[in-house]
Design goal:
Radius of gyration: 30 Å
Shape: extended
Largest sheet: 5 strands, mixed
Strand order of the largest sheet: 8-9-10-1-11
CATH class of the largest domain: Alpha Beta
Distance between the termini: 107 Å
Oligomer: single chain
């Protein structure tokens, strides 16, 4: 120690400054290395507890996975209240086990799913346990296959699929042909058979009582639904009987559904987050400065399908006219999105003229079909539009006008 003091006293002022700087750099480097080691060898996890309150604009619909197809708050609630045999993991971007494990045959035509142990519905109690069984799986999917089932898109997903019960926890799905995307169909939320006893299949989409007091097997269950003059508030609480991974740590989630953005913005101070906020003309979110805008993408798209069972849509010229008469870029611009998916089939050429917006070609295709407005009706529409424009009224021209006859 004495020698160190003698050495320091023998140094000039500048030498002591340089030595001090080197010591500080050494300490800072050491601290940085320790911090880097800590971050690389630590796993950060959220704390348990708390309630998240989210605001959104929309309308609360009956909560039933059979009939929720829109990408809105209703789908978010359904995804938390109901669980499927499989689930999509947004982190790994893979479909993984949820309520069940799945084994696929070597020819990719047989899917054998086995329910995990100790699965219960939300209305289960210690005195009256209500376990999830293979009968519930059969009910959920075989009901969809019934010709009277009121959701044609869901019914199409399981057309030609044989569903058999193997035992109380095992169900086998047998496909006519291999289908690589079939696993995604098994992410549909399961429904309890007991809740739909005595209800005609054709009327399942009218089960309002179940829709506003749903019973699922998901990580959260409905605690309350309260309607006020300002919003509809849906409160979820964590389902403690569920022990499956991943563990959900929030005690509760509250969805406040407003009729318009003005009402939402008036309650902004009571919200933790806002879903799908409006944007200004520059595409910037219209939201409070203390909120952070987060961009996210989902493995899905919004599509319009032609129902070829309808006689009108069996006319190929009409379909071409509708395709070419739809300005998809204008829709994208209005929504401030950036991607147009002309088709999910990679082998199709999206640069083909069939997919390009062309109002003149669309009108020609409609005229060539047997579905178009008579000449006198089209002329009257044009005159009405010209009169409106002359008066300074906003009167956008329709993309295409058509009706049966001609």
């Amino acid at each position: 120690m004495r020698r160190l003091l003698q050495l320091l006293s023998a140094m000039t002022r500048w030498e002591r400054w340089i030595l001090s700087l080197l010591v500080l750099l050494l300490l800072a480097s050491g601290f940085g290395l320790v911090r880097l080691f800590y971050l690389r060898n630590s796993v950060l996890v959220p704390a348990d507890g708390g309630t998240y309150i989210e605001g959104t604009v929309g309308e609360l619909l009956p909560l039933n996975p059979w009939f929720i197809v829109r990408n809105d708050v209703n789908r978010d609630i359904v995804s938390l209240v109901f669980s499927g045999l499989l689930r999509y993991n947004p982190l790994s971007r893979k479909i993984e086990d949820d309520l069940a494990t799945v084994k696929i045959s070597s020819d990719a035509k047989v899917y054998t799913v086995q329910l995990k142990e100790n699965l219960f519905w939300h209305d289960s109690t210690k005195a009256a346990p209500h376990p999830v069984t293979a009968d519930d799986v059969l009910f959920t999917f075989k009901t969809i296959q019934d010709p009277q089932f009121p959701n044609a898109l869901q019914r199409q997903n399981f057309r030609g699929v044989r569903i058999d019960k193997v035992d109380e926890r095992t169900v086998r799905f047998t496909l006519e042909q291999p289908y690589s995307f079939f696993q995604s169909n098994l992410t549909l939320g399961l429904l309890p058979k007991a809740s739909f006893e005595g209800i005609a299949i054709a009327r399942l989409d009218q089960t309002v009582d179940f829709g506003f007091a749903p019973v699922g097997a998901g990580p959260y269950k409905i605690k309350s639904i309260v309607r006020t003059d300002l919003s509809t508030e849906v409160t979820l609480e964590r389902f403690e009987e569920r022990t499956l991974e991943p563990l959900y740590r929030l005690d509760g989630i509250v969805f406040r559904i407003f009729s318009d953005y003005s009402s939402l913005l008036s309650d902004l101070s009571h919200l933790d987050g806002v879903r799908l906020v409006p944007r200004n003309d520059d595409g910037q979110p219209i939201i409070g400065k203390h909120f952070e805008a987060l961009q996210y993408t989902l493995p899905q798209y919004v599509a319009l399908y032609f129902n070829l069972d309808r006689p009108a849509l069996q006319d190929g010229k009409l379909r071409v006219g509708l395709q070419q008469g739809t300005n998809k870029q204008a829709i994208i611009d209005a929504l401030h999105e950036s991607v147009i998916v002309d088709t999910p089939l990679l082998e199709l050429d999206t640069g083909d003229w069939h997919y390009q917006f062309n109002s003149d070609a669309a009108q020609g295709a409609l005229l060539a079909s047997r579905w178009n407005l008579p000449e006198r009706v089209r002329l009257r529409r044009l005159l009405e539009r010209d009169d409106a424009n002359a008066a300074g009224l906003v009167h956008p021209a329709p993309v295409a006008l058509f009706q049966e006859g001609g």
